[in-house]
Structure to design on (211 residues):
């Protein structure tokens, strides 16, 4: 009897989940700027996949990508031509690329249904960081991978543009500390390496298909 009841409840739950997922669709793209504590600032691009619960609340998933590249160069020679052209000879000493990918379950709450209104959003999820560093001067190359849980909270405004589109602007706080090399020392105590990616950001974007 209990087994049958469990199977019925599981079937109902799976049906509700499937119906909810069927309503989730792309509803926005966002492009902005993030200044993490443990990395150089850079651009962040995001995609919203949400479903409307009612006229006020949206639930779904958001996927974001942050990328920052850096090169360290040194001028080793310079010459000026007869025509005044300044030519520099440059050598590259260091190159690195940082990319991290936060994937979150998110909620968006709209404060009003007017063409212009404010909203708040928040998310909880998992973040992955890849860092590739090439030290050309020392002929040393290193790749690092970190991961950990994260959350985001923000708010902003939404201005309707057309019958199914709107422009948004928001300020947000991104909180994440990702780790790698989790092990124990000789005394049996946990040790690891970590990067703090927490920081403030702002972004703008387009929302669509909401009406």
């Amino acid at each position: 009897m209990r087994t049958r009841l469990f199977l019925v409840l599981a079937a109902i739950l799976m049906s509700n989940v499937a119906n909810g997922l069927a309503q989730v669709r792309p509803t926005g793209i966002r492009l902005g700027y993030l200044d993490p504590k443990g990395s150089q600032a850079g651009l962040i691009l995001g995609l919203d996949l949400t479903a409307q619960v009612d006229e006020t609340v949206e639930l779904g998933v958001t996927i974001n990508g942050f990328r920052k590249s850096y090169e360290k160069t040194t001028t080793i020679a310079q010459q000026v031509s007869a025509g005044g052209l300044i030519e520099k000879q440059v050598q590259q000493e260091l190159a690195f690329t940082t990319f991290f990918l936060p994937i979150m379950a998110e909620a968006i709450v709209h404060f009003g249904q007017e063409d212009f209104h404010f909203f708040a959003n928040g998310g909880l999820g998992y973040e992955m960081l890849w860092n590739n560093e090439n030290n050309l001067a020392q002929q040393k190359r290193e790749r690092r991978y970190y991961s950990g849980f994260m959350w985001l909270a923000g708010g902003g405004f939404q201005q309707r543009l057309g019958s199914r589109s709107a422009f948004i602007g928001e300020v947000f706080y991104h909180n994440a500390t990702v780790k790698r090399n989790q092990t124990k020392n000789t005394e049996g105590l946990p040790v690891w390496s970590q990067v703090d990616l927490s920081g403030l950001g702002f972004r703008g974007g387009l929302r669509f298909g909401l009406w």
In short: Helices lie at 2-23. The chain has one domain: 24-208. The first strand starts at residue 25 and ends at 34. The CA atoms of residues 91 and 205 lie 39 Å apart.
